[in-house]
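Just curious: can you write whichever protein you like plus the matching structure tokens?

***
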Amino acid sequence: MSLQDKTVLIGITGGIAAYKICELIRKFQKAGVNTKIVCTPNALNFVTKLTLQNLSKNQVYVEEFDVKDWKPEHISLADEADVMLIAPATANTISKIANGIADNLLTSIACAFSKKMIIAPAMNCNMWNNQSVAENISKLKSRGVEFLEPDTGFLACGYTGKGRLCSIDKIYNTVLEFLEYSQKLAGKKVVVTSGGTIEEIDPVRYISNYSSGKMGFAIAKTAYNMGAEVVLITTKNFGAPFKIVNVKSAIQMQNALDDEFETSDIIIMAAAVADYRVKNYSAQKLKKTSDEELVLELVKNPDILQELCNKNQNKEKIIVGFCAESENLLENAKEKIIKKGCDYLIANDISRKDIGFSSEDNEVTILDKNGGMKHLDKNSKSIISRQILEYIIHE
């Protein structure tokens, strides 16, 4: 895909980190991306209009009613851009966009923008932790806006905490990932599971595992960015622009998958499903007794992956399983893919502390039903998810 056909609209607000966007513009220009800039008036206190024009090779837009032709700028700029990036985004601008306030050109464009929006905040740590700001960010996330959270470190105001603009490389790679992969799954329905299932013992206790659901969520988000209709079936709480079905137990997860099975094209089982559940759930809290031991009788949960593969007799759907092992990773994975009959199996080593459960990174090996194997070196779960999907749809 030629990036010369793509346009990024960068919104710059009045924060000290505005000067860093000059390097970002240069990177986009080098990649051949058409870059247009809109600034709030306060942004020009930190970076000059002339600098931004020279770097972007485009007019820089600031005033809302500075109309050069018959097209209102807040509409034409929204229509022309493939993605809108706001960086740095102040607490003020984030809150305005969340509440539909359009009192300058940048917020007017944001109000009219109906495509992918990415926001990279930068502010004082106390502002970042402010409840109102957190609620506004949550509100925007629920509408499909992607946030690149700030880094922790020394801030320009003299504080140390979370509020620094995240790295320019992270912003650049996130935008490019969307531009490069946005249509590869168009017309496909991708169903993903994530998180560890919860098997209740009584009203206050349960059996579960350490799965954070981050890998499954990353896959779902990447599939969405690649143009797919996405359904995420999860035990965790995520805000996303795609359909999310919240479940607790393995049985509930199986029922949710059954509801989506017929209309799906790809099913990716990234959830850590408990192998067993309590045979007799207690409706009342179990009380401590004088006995030294408490015996819980467990029964097997359904093998959801196996049953999905059995239902896929005509092989019309691509079914992907996950294999989390603490030893003999590849040996166990090879045995599992044969036993289950899935098309692909993603093997990851949960004995390592730097990847897997709760980590932002992962390192996996993809096995396919024909005996093929591809190792993916340690990287962010976002990049790993893209590599997994790329392998699946191009195999």
